[in-house]
Write a structure and sequence with these properties.
Blueprint lengths: L4 E3 L12 E5 L9 H14 L4 E5 L3 H12 L4 E6 L5 H9 L5 E5 L3 H12 L2 E3 L11 H11 L6 E5 L4 H15 L8 E7 L32 H10 L3 E5 L1 H15 L5 H15 L8 E5 L3
Parallel strand pairs: 2-10, 3-4, 3-6, 4-5, 7-8, 7-10, 8-9
Antiparallel strand pairs: 1-2
Helix pairs in contact: 1-2, 5-6, 8-9
Length: 294
């Protein structure tokens, strides 16, 4: 499931010459990093005899599950998603819909998925709580070390629950445990001015908003908050809260240098780096921007 890394083809932070890589997690089979967590975990459960699952998702986790089910017809998924997710994500979800994928549109997706799990006696997959889902990010950590030649540096990524960051940090620490010290990178989380329960531990310079174009950043509960904050601090990273204006600016810049459009969530990695530079924060190089999904 290795995804490519590309060098930023031209300076993408105005006035600052930085060594920047872009990790294309949006090129995973279903279009997001969620595949890394879900595919190997469900594979293990299926081998143990489980055949039906349910989950709630603001988009990419459900799309990943639908993609998996399409290629594993013996597995059934009940997917609970709010009707407010973007039309682009609805289209992708419907693209992978099959007879073994049942979609439940609900404003109370999380609570209804939990109730359904109990009544139907099937496993509820919870990205924000299940630590087994972290294991899939070991591979991502190894790829980043290899593709940036083990130079450490910094990693910027958008987070909602923070599952990817928690898994990535464990992956980096596991590499050190094998005797290969790649000089652990600093981890930087980026959240929106609408949803920021984790990043506000590091960044208070923002104006809260009621809306955001980054519709996948939704987790206000942040069950992994302590775990994520600890990882960021241990790595000597930070957190950044960005506005729609900053995200849009990053999207335009990336479209200019990559000649393709990227999602708001992917562009948040660059928006966070922009803000860090504007605040005088000198991020360790090389810098990896993670494009989390389409």
């Amino acid at each position: 499931m290795q995804t490519p890394v590309i060098r930023a083809p031209s300076p993408i932070v105005e006035g600052v010459g930085l060594d920047i890589y872009i990790k294309r997690e949006d090129l995973n089979p279903s279009g997001s990093h969620k595949d890394r967590a879900l595919f190997p975990y469900v594979d293990k459960l299926v081998m143990k005899g489980e055949k039906a699952f349910c989950l709630s998702s603001s988009g990419n986790f459900a799309i990943s599950a639908a993609y998996y089910a399409r290629h594993h017809p013996q597995v059934q998924f009940h997917l609970f998603s709010p009707p407010t997710i973007s039309q682009e994500k609805k289209d992708r979800l419907n693209e992978y819909k099959t007879d073994n994928v049942i979609i439940h549109w609900s404003k109370l997706a999380r609570s209804e998925a939990s109730q359904f799990s109990r009544k139907a006696h099937i496993r509820l997959l919870r990205g924000s709580k299940d630590d087994y889902l972290l294991e899939g990010y070991d591979e991502l950590a190894r790829e980043l070390v290899e593709q940036t030649e083990g130079k450490g540096g910094s990693v910027f990524m958008a987070v909602s629950s923070g599952t990817m960051l928690a898994g990535l940090w464990e992956g980096f620490r596991n590499i050190v445990g094998t005797g290969r010290d790649p000089s652990l990178p600093s981890l930087h989380i980026v959240q929106t001015t609408k949803v920021y329960p984790i990043a506000r531990e590091f960044d208070q310079d923002f104006t809260p908003s009621k809306v955001s174009i980054a519709s996948a950043i939704v987790d206000r509960v942040a069950n992994r908050k302590d775990q994520v904050v600890k990882a960021v601090k241990e790595s000597h990273g930070s957190g950044w809260i960005v506005s729609d204006e900053e995200i849009t600016s990053a999207m335009k810049k990336l479209a200019e240098v990559l000649h393709e459009n990227v999602s708001p969530e992917s562009a948040m990695s660059l928006a966070g780096l922009h803000k860090a530079c504007a605040k005088g924060f000198r991020a360790k190089e090389p810098i990896a921007l993670i494009f989390t999904g389409k």
